[in-house]
């Protein structure tokens, strides 16, 4: 039988939906706002970039300019200027979504791309924090506002780093190395040592930054490190299905906290504080609201990691012992 126009349309729609789903990391680690808003926009940008031959890293770099520009616009106390900044930040995050989707669609992944992608948000929020501190001083705050700005900035770095790390750990367990960007400091140290300051100056500097970043993530997760090294040593050809299923079941509830301490929640509240012209609240929100969530997230992940490490060491569950 000949395929009808309706059937062709349905097949095309299914293929398009499948391609979109494949551009996502995992439903487990995606936030609803991202799935409903940022990922569809990012997907269309990624399709355009793939069509004209633009690679992921230039997309990331452009996102940095829009994000930093947004921060600069938040310095103004004029709401209409702030709204332009809000739209710029939303577009920057759409580009940040697009670069990862483009990399997965075209299989154009690189260590530099991974580092750039992580650093992009840091550039955005450095600009935002500096702008809000300067704005605060214009509004009558003393230089002490910089102390709160720096503390909030340091909190943000740790929150984002650990959320990103836990997402990649989750992806490692459910998808393996091909579906995760999980790194470890031993391998990164070896790569760093092979680079020369004379012939690889730029990459050496970037590698040092990323090595320190990864070491920080590992220092905050000692039980998780024990589990990862045991798993990598024992299951070199892939994880047992039972271990994947059980880890996913226990770890998946923690993924919502990685979303809370990253972009969407903090930006929605930042926009609220800007609308009511009380931008200084953002620093206290970061320190006194998001940090306790970070602590809860880290403790929860450490408990899950300790449980599975003990299960593997004891050998009580035979289904964990082989593939």
Automatic annotation (TrEMBL):
Q: Is the keyword Membrane in the record? A: yes
Determine if Transmembrane helix is one of this entry's keywords: yes
Q: Which InterPro entries match?
A: CDP-OH_P_trans, CDP-OH_PTrfase_TM_dom
| Domain of life of the source | Bacteria
Record's Gene3D superfamilies? 1.20.120.1760
Q: What is this protein called?
A: CDP-alcohol phosphatidyltransferase
Q: Which UniProt keywords apply?
A: Membrane, Transmembrane, Transmembrane helix
Q: What transmembrane ranges does the database entry give?
A: 57-74, 143-166
> Upper lineage ranks?
Bacteria, Pseudomonadati, Bacteroidota, Cytophagia, Cytophagales
